[in-house]
Amino acid sequence: MFDLIKSFLAEKPNTPAQEVGTHDVRLCSAALLVHVLSADGVVTDEEETMLRAIVRDKFELTEAEAGKLYEQAQAAAHDSVDLYSFTSTLKNTLDEEERIKLVRHLWDVVYSDGQMHEMEDNVVWRIAELLAVSSRDRVLAKRDAARGVSTDFDRSE
Q1: Is the Cα dihedral 125, 43, 15, 60 positive or negative?
Q2: What is the CATH number of domain 25-147?
């Protein structure tokens, strides 16, 4: 019996969300973007285009590399049971400014189709909380995304 338990605990998890090992900042960030993208149950071309542009530009990837990361992020997001596996890595890896920029990118995806659904709002709020982004910074990022202000926003307001 104990041997069975030991062998079970020794097995390496093999689902994409677990294999993230929660060490890949790019995959964790993209998976959170995918969560927001699909929060309202409708994935528009504008949202997908925005997500791909964000990961391409943020991580300096080619179109093909961004597409591959998007596919990996979809699988990781689909296989995850919560947001914590992604946010814990990012919270421990990114500095405050980078976490705020990620929240802004989440809002960019939300507003890319011209509307915000309450489920999208809720998911961004939960992610921001898990990333230790203040309510003030989350709301400023939301406001700037809704207005279409440049992603290099000024937090000094």
Answers
A1: negative
A2: 1.10.3680.10
